[in-house]
User: Fold these one by one.
Assistant:
Number 1:
Amino acid sequence: MLTSRTFLKRTRAGSVLKVVREHYLRDDIPCGAAACPLCPPRPDGGPSALEERPSGAASSLCPGPHYLLPDTNLLLHQIDILEDPVIKNVIVLQTVLQEVRNRSAPVYKRIRDVIGNPEKHFYSFTNEHHRETYIEQEQGESSNDRNDRAIRVAVKWYNEHLKKMQNEEIQVIFLTNDRNNKEKALEEGITAYTCEEYIKSLIANPELVDRLACVSDEGKEIESGKIIFPEHLPLSKLQQGIKSGIYLQGTYRASRDNYLEATVWVHGDAEENKEIIIQGLKHLNRAVHEDIVAVELLAKDEWVAPSSVVLQDDGQNEDDIETEEEKENILKTSDNKSMLRPTGKVVGIIKRNWRPFCGMLSKSQIKEARRHLFTPADRRIPRIRIETRQADTLEGQRIIVAIDGWPRNSRYPNGHFVKNLGSAGDKETETEVLLLEHDVPHQPFSQAVLSFLPKMPWSITEKDMKYREDLRHLCVCSVDPPGCTDIDDALHYREMENGNLEVGVHIADVSHFIRPGNALDEESAKRGTTVYLCEKRIDMVPELLSSNLCSLRSNVDRLAFSCIWEMNHNAEILKTRFMKSIINSKASLTYAEAQMRIDSASMNDDITVSLRGLNKLAKILKKKRIDNGALTLSSPEVRFHMDSETHDPIDLQTKELKETNSMVEEFMLLANVSVAQKIYDEFPEFALLRKHPAPPPSNYDILVKAAKSKNLEIKTDSAKALAESLDKAESPASPYLNTLLRILTTRCMMQAVYFCSGMDNDFHHYGLASPIYTHFTSPIRRAYLWSIKGM
C-alpha cells in the first residue's frame, strides 16, 4: 500500500519545485512477540525480541504478563530507569525513536544500545510503516498531538493483536508522564500509568524509585519557594537577540576555585569581548559548566576584574541567600581594579550539556530526611539535590547522579540517583570515576565487536602476499618504552650499492583487520584513542589486534604499510616509495637497549649498525627542523613503579629521554610529512591533513609577562624567533626556569586540528615548522589513520 503527499517548494533561485513524497505501508511487519503465530518471522532470521512469557519485576498494578510501551517524553527523561536490568520487554515505537533522535542524540544512542542488548528484550516496532498503525495528521492538529495519537493507536493495535494469541493473554501497558495523553488513553480504554506509578508498583525493587527523574517543569516552582533566579528567556527571543547583537552566544565555563564566578567564551571570530566574566549567583542564573548560553553585557561601570578570592560552596545553608550576597560583596571589594574585563549576565540557555556526574552524597543532618545534597567530583559542577531512601547505604560511596532540572526557586538543581560505583578511596572505584568524568569509553568489547576479529590461528595467506612487497629480508627493528606490547612502528636502515642510504618506516596495517562500517570499526572510532593509566591501558582495539596481530613483534611475520626513502648522507630525500608490505622484525628493543647498542664499542652486528646509521641521520633531520623554526617544548612524562603483588603505584619517576627517543620521533615525523604530501598530490581536494595554527599574539601575554619578571625577553614574532628566545632564556639562579617557560609556552599554543585539504588553503603546522602534515603513524592507538590508509 502506498500513500503520497504532493507540495510545492520554492528554491533559492526563486523557481517553484513540485515535491512528491511517497510513504509505503505494509502488513507484514512483525509485532516482535515470540509466541505470535500471526506475524511472519524476522527478515534476518533472528529470534523475536519480546519474550513469550514476559519476565521481569512483578507489578502490583498489573500482576499479569505484560509488555511496556513508553511515549517520547518518558523515554527522554527516564532513560536511567529503562536501562535498569529489572525493566524488560519494552516496545519502542518508530514514532518515539524519531522524536528522541531529533531532540537528544545521547539519549538516542543509549536507547539504541538497549534495543541491541538481547538480554533486555526491547523491540523497535516500525509503526509508521505498518498499515494498521500509520495515521495521517488531521487538519489543525499539531505534530506533537499527531504523534501522541499515533502512539495510542499503536498501543490499541498491540492489545487487539495480542488477544488473538492462543496462550495466556499478554497486555501492553502504556507509560506516559503527560497528563493529557494519559487521560485520552484511559478514555480510549488503554491501560496507562505514569512512570512513577508503575515503578512504585514494583514492590520487590524499591531501589528503582531513587532513579526516577524529577519531571516537573522549571516554570512550575514549588508554591512556598522564594524566587532566587531571573526567568530564562525563551529560545525564540534569544535567537532574535543574538542576531541583532543584543545578546552574545557562548560556552559557559565555571571556575574550579570560585563557585560564584564563571567565564563565557563567545562563539564567532570577533576578538572584542571574546571572554566575558560572570559574577554572582543571579547573574550565573542556573547555567552549568559547558552549557551553551546567551549573555547580556552589563554597562561598563558594572564591569569587574577576575577575582583572586577562592570560594568553595560548603552547601550547609542552602537557602541562606543573604550569606551568598555577602560572599558576592567580597568579590566586588577584591583588588585588581585595573584589570576590568567585559562582564555580563546569563539571560537564557540555548543548549544544556548535562551528563551523569560522579561524586559523593552529603547526607542531610535532619533525621529520616529523604532529600540530600550530592557533591560532584568536578568542582565546576554545582551541588545537586536528590531524593533517596538509601542515604545510609550510599554514605562514603562514589555514586553517579543525573540532573533533571533547575527551578527558579531552588538554590541547587534537582536530580536523581543513577548508580553506586563503590567505596570512596578504593583503587578500582576511583579509576572508574576518573574514566567516567573524562568520558573515556572503557566497557569491555561486546560480542558483536569481537565477532569481527580474525579466527585464530591466523596466518598470512597467498592472497595477502599477492598484493604486498615482501620485506622480510630487511633488518627491521622496533624501539619502544619498556613493557610496550602494542608495537605499531618499526625502522630499517641499509647502505645501497650506489652509495646512498635506504631508510624505511613500517607501520602496522590495522586496516587489513578492520573493515569500514562494521561493529569493530564503529567501536574503535567511538573510542578514538588508547588511554594509558598508571597500572593498565584502555585499548582502542581489542587486545588480539593491539598486542598480537597488529603488533610488530620480533621474529613473526606481520602486515605493514611501509614508507621507504632513498637518502644521501646529509639526510636529503632523493626518492620516496610507499607500499603495503610484509615484514619480520629482527628485534624489539627498548629505548635504553637501543641506546646501549649505539654507545657500545664492542657491538657491530647488523641491528646495531642500522641503529647508529638511523641515529646519525635523525640528528641531521632534527637540526634542520629547529633551524626552520620548529619548537622544542617541555612536557615532562612520568613513569609509575608498581608493586609486583598489589599492582599499586609505589614510586614516581620522570622519564629519562635518550637519543633513541629523538631518533624514533624524527623518523615518525618525516614519515607523516611524506605521507601528507603523497595523499595531497593524489587527492588534492580530499586529503586528510593536520595543521597547527599560529597562536594570536594575546596568547603569549602570560609567557612574556613571566619571562619579564625574571628580566628575560621572549620574542613571539614567529616560531623561529620564539624558539631562539626560549633557547636563550636561562637563569643560573633558577636551573628549572627554562623548563617552566617551555611548559608555559605549550599552554599558549592553539589546538592542532584535522581538516580536509579542499576546505582550507593554510596547511602549515606551526609547532613543527612544516608546510604540510598528517598522522600516518600510531594506528593501533589513533583511529584517524585508517581513513588515510584506506585511500
Note: Residues 662-790 form one domain.
Number 2:
Amino acid sequence: MLSQVYRSGVQPFGRRLLPWVQSPGLSRSHRVQTSATRHVRSWSNIPFITVPLSRTHGKSFAHRSELKHAKRIVVKLGSAVVTRGDECGLALGRLASIVEQVSVLQNQGREMMLVTSGAVAFGKQRLRHEILLSQSVRQALHSGQNQLKEMAIPVLEARACAAAGQSGLMALYEAMFTQYSICAAQILVTNLDFHDEQKRRNLNGTLHELLRMNIVPIINTNDAVVPPAEPNSDLQGVNVISVKDNDSLAARLAVEMKTDLLIVLSDVEGLFDSPPGSDDAKLIDIFYPGDQQSVTFGTKSRVGMGGMEAKVKAALWALQGGTSVVIANGTHPKVSGHVITDIVEGKKVGTFFSEVKPAGPTVEQQGEMARSGGRMLATLEPEQRAEIIYHLADLLTDQRDEILLANKKDLEEAEGRLAAPLLKRLSLSTSKLNSLAIGLRQIAASSQDSVGRVLRRTRIAKNLELEQVTVPIGVLLVIFESRPDCLPQVAALAIASGNGLLLKGGKEAAHSNRILHLLTQEALSIHGVKEAVQLVNTREEVEDLCRLDKMIDLIIPRGSSQLVRDIQKAAKGIPVMGHSEGICHMYVDSEASVDKVTRLVRDSKCEYPAACNALETLLIHRDLLRTPLFDQIIDMLRVEQVKIHAGPKFASYLTFSPSEVKSLRTEYGDLELCIEVVDSVQEAIDHIHKYGSSHTDVIVTENEKTAEFFLQHVDSACVFWNASTRFSDGYRFGLGAEVGISTSRIHARGPVGLEGLLTTKWLLRGQDHVVSDFSEHGSLKYLHENLPVPQRNTN
C-alpha cells in the first residue's frame, strides 16, 4: 500500500499534537507521519476521549429517519463535484461548503471519512500553467519579441496530472479543515492494497487510529500508479469488489470500516428510472435490491471513471455489507451548501438505498393514485358523488362504536403527552359524530351542480361560443394535527369537488384516522373510486411532502400556527391555503349594549379557547373604563378563570394592573386574553390592521353607522357586527364543512368550503375558425355577446 498522510498543525479539541503516529501492526514503511517533525514517539498510553457508537453495525438502516443515528460516515466526492466546469481546476466554493458540513458533523461526535477525486484536475491545472510558462520563455528567447504566438498545449497524461495534483489537493483540504480546528490525513490506496491481507489489515488499523484521534481521513486512489481497470468481478460476494474508481473504493472502505452511512455525491439529483433529462425520467426516492431491471442507465458524467451504473453497483455492494447508502447531487448551488447535513437529518434528498420494502405504496405512488382516482371522481355524475358522501355520513353513525373505540386508544396513548387543549381536539364523541354526519349531508346536498357549472357564456363570433366552467383543482394535500374529525370533513369536500386527496394526520390520532379512512374508502368503493382519497402512513416528513410539486396542486394545513408557518416555509412551488395565526379582535364601542357585550365576549373567548376563531384581543372604548359595563366584563372573565394581559394604554390607566402583554400580536389558544384601550372606532381599525392576522374581527355597538363603517373598513376575511367570533366556521356558514379558514387574498378567503376547492377552465366550441379571419381585412368580426347562463339548482 502506498500511504501518505498529511496532518494540519491544529491541535484537535485541545489534545496534545503528536509528531507521528504508528498503529499496532503497521509496518515501518507504512508509518503515518505529520509534517511537524520526524521524532519517534509512542502514543499508546495517552488517553483519548471516545464517543460510543449509537448502534451496533450489522444491518443497514431501514428508513431515512434513522440516518440521524449514523455514527461513522463516508462521504464520496465525485469528480464532477470537486472539479470546475472546464475540468481544469477545483470548484473551491463547493469544496469549502462540503468541508464545513463534514466539520459540523465531526464536531457533533461523528466519525467522518472523505473519499475524494480531484487530484487529476488539480494537477492538470498546475501542469498546464507550467507548460504555458515554459513555452512562453522559449518563444521569447527564440523570437526576441514579447509578442507570443498561439501555443498548443499537449494532451496531458492522467497519471502525471495525478502525481502533480495530489500534494496541492491535500494542502487545500488541510487549510480548509484548519478553519474548524480539525486535523485531516491523506491516505492513497490501490486495488492491490485490498487483495493483500496484511496490507488490508494495516490500512484498517491506520483508519481506526485516525478516527480514534478525531482526525478526518481523506482517501483517494493513487492515480499516479493505478493500473488499468480489471475485468468486472463485482458483486460475486460481500468480500469481492474490484477498486476501479472512487465509487468502488468508497463502497469497499465503507464495508471494511463497518460504516453506518455512505453518501455518494455526484452531478445528478440521484437515481432516475431513465436517463436524467429524458421526458419521462423520474427520480427514485428509495431503491431496493432487485430494482435494477426497472432502470435504464445513461452515459457517465463529463469527468470521472464511473457512471451511475457503477455507483449503483457500488451502493448495492455496500448495502449488502450492512452500510446504508444515499446518492445525491453535490453540485446544485441551491442545495450543495446543506446536502450532507440534510441527508444525515433524514430529509428526502437524493436516492436512498434500502433492503426493507414498505408494506404499502410509497407516497409518490399514492399521489399518482389520488390523481387518477380524482379524475375518475370528477367524471361521475353529481348524484353519484353525493351518494358517496351520504353513504359516508351513514357509516359515521352506523360504525360509531368502532370509531369511538379507536379514538379511546389514541386518547390513552396521548395521556400525559399532549396538553389539555390538544387532547380536547383529539377527542371524539357521539355528539361530534352526529354533527359530522349532519355536515356531510349538507355537503352532499350542495354538491349537485358544483363541478361543471357554467359561470359565463360568450358568443365570440357566429358559431364560436366560449364557456367558463368549474373544475376540480387537482390533488389536495391536507395536513392536520390532533383533529380526527377533520378527515371525513375534508374527504367529503374533496369528493364533492372531484379532487384527489392526500391526507397526512398526526401520529397521536393514528387509530382514529385509520378507521375513518377505511370508512371513507368503503363509501368511495360504491362507484369504483376507492383510490381517490389516500392516507399517508409512511414515515414521510411534512417537509418532504411539501416538495412533491409535480403531484400536489394545493396544500391545506389544519393545525397550530407553527405548523402552518412551517408548511408555508417548506412548500416548494405549491400554493398553501390557510392562515398562520388566528388573532381575532372584538371592539366594544362606546354605544355597545350592556346585555350583549358579556355574552359575546364569553362565547368568543371561553366556548372553545383553542380554536383559531377564538377571541384573543378585546379592544374597549376609553369612555367605558370605570363603568358598570366594564366591571361586568372583568367580573365575567374572572369567573371563567381567564388570565388578563394588559395592553400598554390599558396598563397606564390602572394603579395595579394585570401583567403587561409581551406582544400585542399573540395567539394564546387558551383562557388568556389581552385587553387594550382605544379612543375611537378608527383607532380600533388601525390597531386591528397593525396587530391582527386578517382572520375574524368583531364590533359590538348599537350604532348602525359606526358598525357599517367598521364592516367596510376592516380588511379581514370575516368581519362581524354584534356576533361571536366563533361563527367564523364553514359549518355555521352553511357550507357543510370547511377545509380551513384562509386569510389569503387570492382564490379563496375566510372559511373555505366546496366553492374554494374549485377552479375554472375555458371551453371554446367553433367550426373551422382561425384568427386570421378576424384581421383588419378578414371576413369575420368579433361579437363578444354575453349569453344567458343556465340557472343553478338551489334545491
Note: The first strand starts at residue 20 and ends at 21.
